[in-house]
Design goal:
The complex is a heterodimer of chains A (about 130) and B (about 850). Chain A is mostly helical and about 130 residues long. Helix content of chain A is about 75%, strand content about 0%. In chain A, α3 runs parallel beside α6. Chain A starts with 7 loop residues before the first helix and ends in a 5-residue tail after the last helix. Chain B is globular. Chain B is built from 27 helices and 4 strands. In chain B, the strands form 2 sheets. Chain B has a two-stranded antiparallel sheet with strand order 1-2. A two-stranded antiparallel sheet of chain B has the order 3-4. The chains are: A mainly alpha (about 130), B mainly alpha (about 850). At the A-B interface, α3 and α6 of A face α10 and α11 of B.
Amino acid sequence: MSDIRDEQDAHEFRAEALSLWRITFGPLIWALHFVCSYGATALVCAKAGAEAVPVLRMGIGIGTLLALALIFWFGLQAWRQWDLRRDREWENDAGTGEDRHQFLGHAGFLLAAISFIGVVYVALPALFIGTCA
Amino acid sequence: MTRPRTLPTAEGPYPPTEEMLNAPVSEAEQKRGGEELRAAWKTPEGWRYVTAVNNSEVGKWYCLTALAFMLIAGVLALLMRVQLAYPDMTFLDADRFNQFFTMHGSAMMFLFAVPMFEAISILILPAFLGARDMPFPRLSAYGYWCFLIGGCFVLGSLLFDAGPKAGWFMYPPLATKEEGVGPDIWLLGLSFIEVASIAAAVELIVGALKCRPPGMRVNIMPLYAWYVLVVGGMILFAFPPLIAGDFLFELERSFDWPFFDPTRGGDPILWQHLFWIFGHPEVYIVFLPSIAIAAMIVPTVAQRPIVGYSWIVLSAVGTGFLSFGLWVHHMFTTGLPQISLGFFSAASEAVVIPTGIQIFAFVATLMVGRVKLTLPMLWIAGALAIFVAGGLTGVMLAIVPFNWQVHDTYFIVAHLHYTLFGGMVFPVIAGVYYFYPFFAKKLLSERLGLWAFWLIFSGFNITFLPMHLTGLMGMPRRVFTYPESSGWGWLNLISTLGAFIVAAGFAVFLFDLLRPKKAQGQIPRNPWGAGTLEFSHDVPEEAWGARSVPYVTSRYPLWDQPKLLARMDAGRYYLPDAPEHQRETIVTSVIDAKPVHVQRVTGPAWITILAAIFTGGAFIFPTFHIYTPAIICAAFAIVCIMYWLWTSTARPPKDDMRDAGLGLRLPTYASGPQSVGWWGMWITMLGDATAFASVVFGFFFYWTARPDFPPEGAAHPAGLWVAVAALAAVAAWALTVAARESNARGQVTLARIALLLAPLAAGAAGVAAWAAVRDLDPTSHVYPAILWALMVWLVVHLGAGVLMQGYCLAGSVFGKMTPRHDAELRNVTLYWHFMAVKALVTTAVLGLAPGWLT
């Protein structure tokens, strides 16, 4: 019989014992990338001339690469936490600390994947459109 | 002085072993627990019934009220369809038609779709979680009464021919210049309801995070709870920009501050941004919780666990985020730069991915299960068919050139009705059929249900499918009539016929819903064979929610834990009694749902109704530019709320610990992040900070959008006063923190002195902020106007902060707050953390930004 004051789970899986926030890191980077791209475009198109547009596009390109790298890194961490290769478990539906840990990894990984696609989508206009008009 | 003992923590065995759970509960013990709980949770009778705050009562009233508002808005739609049936009809005149379409949209969105989500969640979320009630029952009740008063006020304007008529998104300058009180009714009436929505969101988030039963870790909580979390979070970030917009809009209408008037530096586009930053996420705010109902029905129908639980969580969270990157697709024709339009077009296409994933997960579950086509499933099937059609036109509309082509035509009307009927109305009706045995303890008729479904489904398609064509042929939305030569007449006639078929379907549904069902007798407890906790309910009804709060180890406890039901009924699990006849529920940790403490929940009260009436007065009087009674009402509302908090929340308990059952002893008081109040404050502040950020966004928006911002030679705020305001606000914050620390160390006198000085510093900050902008004329140009608006925002929040500090001081003096029982002070300090940041940002914008920008 274990006592409620045993912090066994918290030690084993300390990584996310404190919060749910980690799974939203991917989407948060997507949101940041989106806001920065939109804000920078609004500023450049309102305040700077046409000559600044290539700089803007370059900037969005660099920002996109950064965002993708970060999301990739979070995704990789989440993938390890999901630990699919070791135990081939997809559902993680038991009421145990291990399944909770792997579930959050799974969800985080999927959210990183969707954020990655989202960032690529949002960057495409800057790749194809060359003017503010 | 020595540091006093800290609060106790939970002690005893956990998790319970099978042996402990197998031990029988004696007859006498069962009887005693049941009687105590029945006494504690007794629903008030007779005319006192309206004082009930229990989630089952408030949830039912909320649902029925939202349904009634929906029917009224539906009747408006029918009247409009009559007017449009033939060319050159004179059934309604243009003015009344404008009022009707404005009110139809506003009521369906603000009085039906969003409140219905909150109503259903208040009604069923605690049952999914095996909880006794929501963490803040009186807050739900207060929200409900606000909703009822506000809704009747807004809809009532139609009876006096005084309704708003500028369309449900109230675009300026049309709406700012509109004569009469219509737009004021819209702005103030709906702001009032938005406040209630945010209150419900706070309640639901805390409920899903902290009120789960022991053992229900995040990976096994019902999908509905995941959706509630996501949608609650979205409300916190979507509604505040609209409230900020309403604030600016009403300042323009009442005091002529030119935020949206281009002749004095304003910009109508700012309203469009603020409205649609709310408006597009709002579509998902109504869609996600409805599809969450589908996520509960589908596994039951297929009699197997959902396929791809993690994928659905991804879909809910992903949609929640991406939906905030879509708002400009309502503004493709406003002349923004092409690249900007491209971003929103791309994000609008991307959101289809997570939205589609959940639909595939449902289809997969149905494919691998053994499906029995019940009525709820029929409505879900109809929902998926209609929603997918609406989603496909959505993909078309996300493409800028096509959007330009059909902008403001009936194509849009068709698209939005497909998404909302498929994404909201059908799943909600499915939910009514599915949960009816749970909340009414009766069953709805199979035969009438089939009639209702086929009438509404076919009627809907007859109404809205032709509208795609009507729109492509060029019929603009919101016209009250059209000439015969246009060639749209026959299509409109078909749509009108269809609308009446839909109405007939609703009549059948309503009859079935409301007819007396006395003859039906007692229904089975779990008629659909569901696996989730809501069908552990008591038949006949008991008001206690759960006889005992179970220990859960599975996503479908009724399927996987065969002895669970008997143990719950016997009171084998947690909180099986109520020795002090107090209402209580169990609070658990966020991730792993370990029991943390026992939370006392509030019971029936008149004070919530009074508070709602006075709050209503504070919003409704200004509509008619009557300010003195409004201020008096606001003051009384504050008094009522303070009284309610003082008398019934966070009182130091008689005993520190309580036997919670199964050998577990839990604390009866919590402070700081352990307590639900702290979470409520933190979540509310997140929403408040979003609204503040929206006003600050306005400042910088003007700077990018207008060459004359700030105008040349404009007077700026007085730098010295700005600096004083910043320093005084920081001092007020520091004193509050000092009070918390010294109080916790047992230095009560020191804490009281700090709490006495802190409001003085806060007051000084407010006066200094006012003095800084006093000489500027807010009606002359948008630059001084937005500075004044920021000042007003700051002063109002400082005022709230002062009240809180005074409340803590009084608590300390009158023994409600002690060094150990300091929940209020911790919550107030949290408020002041946010307050300090807001004050610094405001003073930076007032004092520094003019220098940077010019």
